[in-house]
Design goal:
The complex is a heterotrimer. By secondary structure, chain A is mainly α. Helix content of chain A is 73%, strand content 0%. Chain A has 12 helices and no strands. Chain B is α/β, with parallel strands linked by helices. The longest helix of chain B has 18 residues, at 188-205. In chain B, α4 (110-122) packs across α5 and α5 (126-139) packs across α7 (158-170). Chain B contains 13 helices and 12 strands. Chain B has helices at residues 49-56, 82-88, 100-103, 110-122, 126-139, 145-148, 158-170, 188-205, 216-222, 240-245, 250-258, 298-302, 320-323, and strands at residues 7-18, 21-33, 38-42, 64-72, 75-76, 93-96, 176-180, 208-213, 225-230, 233-239, 308-309, 315-316. In chain B, 35% of the residues lie in helices and 23% in strands. Chain C is an alpha/beta fold. Chain C has helices at residues 65-72, 95-101, 122-133, 139-152, 169-181, 199-216, 227-233, 251-256, 261-269, 275-280, 311-315, and strands spanning 16-27, 37-49, 54-58, 80-85, 88-89, 105-108, 187-191, 219-224, 236-241, 244-250, 321-324, 327-329. The chains are: A mainly alpha, B alpha/beta, C alpha/beta. Chains B and C meet through α7, α8, α9, α10 and α11 of B and α6, α7, α8, α9 and α10 of C.
Chain lengths: 302, 324, 337
């Protein structure tokens, strides 16, 4: 135990000494994530696809809705710049695949972000307050859960027309339910931990406890769930587009392209293969990253 | 060459491979146990006291490996194949743990768990095994043993469960009983009951007992000899009276001085050993205790003191012994 | 020089008065129509606490000591009874009224690491009470106060940006103490603060608490099952059994002349680190097991294990009686035992 003079020296040096950088749990998790080769590879591939999507117009001499009358429904041809070939209307498939990437990735990320914000807050509040509030909130979730998703989407489409923002809303509106359930479960187990009791004893407001103490500690499973939700959302959007309920012409998404390609699968295989490969690759990447994150964030390792 | 030690451990070292590097939980430990004696193994977290016995019972985690020699009577048992080791584990050498709930199978009745051991190892018939189980439960003080033997572990209280563990451990009349913090999780009045039981059984069965604990009070009441561990190494050994009334190693001294006593009213502030328990991943060069020792000098930081005997079964790992 | 404040402050009024405090938890019954059972964790506790005093609360599992500590701070709502803090009853007080009182009422927990938010730096953790109760302070001032408190409890101030998992158990407990002390409270409930720590570290933390008590004139409620430590640090000691007070006395009286059979058994059960004394001491070993708090025995709750139980003990629960200036016992036969 220190004696008085040591303590005084300590106090004097308190201002002088440099503060040591802490090693947060997020940093540890990041290090573990980067050791996972499949996850890192997936991040690189996704990065490339994202860049391609962003810089799409620069990468092709053709616009996405431009018709090349001289080259309708023809296969890949490096000389005239149609590296993926063209579709039934003579539009360049390469640029349309990249525009499709824009739509799919945007829908995936935005819908998931919306569901994240709503779901996490809702679930944390329900789990934290417990009792009647929790019961009512979760019964509401249960009711929504049982509504058939497709009817809901079709109703929106019928009333508001085919609008890409509506797709975000519809998808976000479904995904937040599961997120809320997950967060509520995590919150219930977190609520009894001593550091939450300590915050109560200090007099910290409920609002602050939820946002400062509970939510940062439930983010682990939430992040993992997010990376696994994004592919689901993209797939759902593709499915809607496949059915003709998705984005409007001339905008396109992978689902639309796959739908068109499926119709002419024997004659013009390229129209199906390229968008399908991009879709599949993206979904794989998100799943590998999700797995990597789950391993990295697993508190057991601590 | 036969010895009369029932258990002899030489140069036992146990290492664990962790994501952050290799950790030496037990470092070059030497000791022996004689028939019928009770050895207290004392230490705090990181001392290695439990890992020694997990090593010799073949219960180490997968990322651990031991080297050295452990002889039960004259037979080498360290790193034996499980099949061979099973002839000794539970039969000649038994171990009981701190938390009886996790050591007992919650899905099996006590009768099944106890008779299993006897049928397997002693070739007894079911009915004979059950009779012996009941008589053993009776011996350890479980009221209504004949009915209770057919209950499940969760139907017993903490103290009762520990008695069941002790009964199970003694079923085959082992010659060595290793008790790893058996009373730490129990209330103090229940602990008193269990310690009483252990004292009784000591006289009746004459089993050599190893009492692993951090509680110096328990050791004072139960043990004949004491081994003090720090940072994976043995730092002092001796008879129980030597250790308590004439300790040599600074750590032992420090531990004894820092214990508040229920039978004394201290007006001074407690003596506290400064510093932290050792970090096994980052042990200093030289003596593991150097940062906390009040007698430290230069040699302690350069060289590691070896355990040196100084007569009468006493030993201490400290350079101060050289000057005495 | 003695490190203990002599508790001769009886002439001042108590800062805390607890009267007939009860905490019962309803346990859903097994049958569809059977009424809910009550777990009587705390069943009628009375005591006063004076400024600068350390009250030890001892007992074994199920005695309700942890629940009592939390009920006093209103972290668990009491079912019945009164807790008067500085003269005013706080049981059932609305959140708005409790909030400002919380600067003076603090708690330290048994598990040092679990009581710290793993995602916050220790600087943020220690600063939180300041930020909550003194929002007018600027960032620099807060940081300076945090660093001063860190040094005071024996932590290196430059560790302010580190995270809890980077510290040992003893250091985590110091962080918890710093957090509890930063607003200079009047009362700290210490819930088994050293039980989870290594023996060589326990003494360090106990010494720290005593120093802080002297310096800041703190009152402590020291909850523990370790009677040796309690003897060292406490002025008065309250022994609980199944939610009831068995004995409440000042330190010297209770260890020299315990009156309640449970207190006697408890004291004799504690192993003493001295072979001669330990092997030759007279032992009072209780029979049987702790009854369940769900169905406590009628009359005196201790009667099922008491070597002196008589008929009266089955019929009538004993009341806490004052037997001397410094001792109160709840036992029908404390005179004759």
């Amino acid at each position: 135990m220190m004696n008085k003079s040591e303590k005084t020296a300590l106090l004097q040096s308190a201002g002088a000494a440099e503060e040591i950088e802490g090693r947060s749990l997020w940093r540890d998790a990041r290090i573990r994530l980067f050791r996972n080769k499949a996850a890192v590879g997936s991040m690189i591939i996704l990065g490339i696809i994202t860049l391609l999507a962003i810089f799409a117009p620069l990468l092709s001499p053709y616009a996405y809705d431009q018709i090349d009358w001289s080259y309708i429904q023809e296969g890949p041809n490096w000389e005239n710049g149609h590296i993926f070939g063209t579709d039934g209307n003579g539009r360049d498939l390469f640029i349309r695949v990249l525009y499709g990437a824009r739509v799919s990735l945007a829908v995936g990320l935005l819908a998931t972000t919306v569901s994240l914000i709503i779901g996490v807050t809702y679930g944390a509040v329900a789990g934290y307050f417990g009792g009647k509030i929790d019961s009512i909130m979760m019964r509401f979730v249960d009711v929504l859960y049982s509504l058939p998703f497709m009817f809901f989407v079709i109703m929106l489409m019928v009333v508001f027309g085919r609008n890409i923002f509506l797709i975000f809303v519809a998808l976000g509106a479904v995904e937040w339910l599961t997120m809320a359930r997950i967060v509520r479960g995590q919150t219930l187990s977190l609520r009894r931990r001593e550091f939450i009791e300590a915050a109560h004893a200090t007099g910290v407001s409920n609002f602050k406890i939820i946002f400062r103490h509970i939510i940062p500690n439930v983010l682990g499973p939430v992040i993992v769930y997010m990376t696994l939700t994004i592919p689901q959302v993209i797939l759902t959007e593709s499915f809607l587009s496949f059915l003709g309920l998705g984005v409007q012409e001339p905008l396109t998404s992978w689902g639309v392209l796959i739908s068109e390609g499926a119709k002419v699968i024997e004659a013009s295989t390229w129209m199906l293969i390229y968008p399908a490969v991009f879709l599949a690759l993206t979904l794989f990447c998100f799943n590998f990253i999700g797995d990597g994150l789950r391993d990295a964030l697993d508190p057991k390792d601590r | 060459m036969t010895t009369n030690h029932i258990l002899t451990v030489e140069n036992l070292t146990t290492r664990f491979q962790t994501p952050d590097g290799e950790v030496e939980a037990v470092n070059n430990v030497n000791f022996h146990i004689d028939p019928g004696e009770t050895l207290g193994v004392v230490g705090e977290s990181g001392s290695g006291k439990t890992q020694i016995f997990l090593s010799l019972m073949g219960l180490l985690a997968k990322n651990g490996a031991s080297t050295g020699s452990v002889r039960y009577k004259d037979k080498e048992i360290l790193n034996l194949q499980p099949r061979e080791l099973n002839k000794i584990r539970g039969v000649s050498m038994s171990m009981i743990f701190q938390d009886p709930m996790t050591s007992l199978n919650p899905f099996l009745k006590i009768s099944r768990q106890m008779t299993e051991v006897l049928v397997e190892h002693r070739g007894m018939s079911e009915s004979d095994a059950l009779a012996r189980a009941i008589s053993m439960l009776d011996r350890v003080g479980i009221p209504g043993a004949a009915q209770r033997v057919h209950m499940y572990p969760h139907e017993f209280s903490g103290g009762m469960r520990q008695r069941v563990m002790i009964a199970m451990a003694l079923l085959c009349d082992p010659e060595v009983l290793i008790a790893d913090e058996p009373t730490t999780a129990l209330d103090v009045t229940v602990q008193a009951q269990i310690l009483d039981l252990l004292r009784d059984l000591q006289t009746d069965f004459n089993t050599a007992t190893v009492m692993i604990t951090h509680d110096l009070g328990v050791v004072a009441g139960l043990c004949d000899r004491v081994m003090v561990m720090y940072g994976g190494r043995v730092v002092e050994t001796g008879s129980v009276r030597d250790i308590y009334y004439d300790s040599h190693h600074p750590y032992t001294e420090g531990l004894l001085k820092s214990m508040p006593r229920i039978d004394r009213a201290d007006e001074e502030s407690l003596f506290a050993i400064p510093g932290q328990p050792p970090n096994l991943q980052n042990l200093p060069k030289g003596c593991a205790y150097q940062e906390r020792c009040e007698y430290v000098f230069d040699r302690c930081c350069a060289e590691r003191p070896l355990l040196r005997e100084f007569g009468n079964g006493r030993a201490s790992a400290c350079f101060r012994e050289d000057d005495k | 020089m003695s490190v203990m404040n002599k508790s001769a402050k009886k002439d001042t009024s108590p800062i805390l008065s607890v009267r007939d405090l009860k905490v019962h938890f309803p346990i859903p019954s097994k049958g569809l129509f059977a009424p809910d059972r009550q777990l009587k964790a705390v069943d009628g506790v009375n005591f006063d606490l004076y400024p600068g005093e350390t009250l030890g609360v001892v007992g074994e599992s199920g005695c309700g000591k942890s629940t009592l500590g939390r009920a006093i701070l209103q972290l668990i709502p009491p079912t019945d009874g009164q807790v008067a803090w500085l003269g005013k009853n706080i049981v059932g007080a609305p959140h708005r009224d409790m909030q400002p009182l919380r600067r003076d009422l603090q708690i330290i927990f048994q598990d040092p690491l679990a009581s710290l938010n793993p995602r916050m730096t220790i600087g943020e953790i220690i600063a939180e009470p300041l930020v909550t109760h003194k929002p007018e302070l600027g960032k620099e001032e807060i940081k300076a106060r945090v660093k001063r408190m860190m040094a005071r409890v024996g932590l290196l101030p430059q560790m302010i940006n580190r995270y809890p998992h980077e510290f040992s158990g003893g250091q985590c407990q110091r962080i918890g103490i710093a957090r509890a002390m930063i607003l200079e409270p009047k009362l700290i409930v210490c819930d088994e603060p050293v039980s989870a720590l290594d023996v060589s570290i326990q003494a360090q933390i106990v010494n720290l608490l005593q120093e802080l008590q002297r310096e800041f004139d703190l009152s402590l409620i020291f909850i523990s099952h370790d009677l040796s430590i309690v003897r060292h640090i406490c002025h008065r000691i309250m022994v609980l059994y199944l939610g009831n007070v068995a004995e409440l006395a000042d330190r010297d009286s209770i260890y020299a002349a315990p009156r309640h059979p449970y207190t006697k058994a408890l004291i004799s059960a504690v192993p003493i680190p001295d072979p001669e004394i330990e092997r030759n001491k007279e032992r009072i070993v209780l029979t049987g097991d702790l009854p369940s708090p769900l169905s406590p025995p009628s009359g005196c709750v201790f009667r099922t294990r008491c070597p002196f139980a008589k008929d009266k003990c089955v019929q009538e629960p004993p009341v806490l009686e004052r037997v001397s200036d410094s001792q109160e016992v709840a036992c029908h036969f404390h005179d004759s035992i």
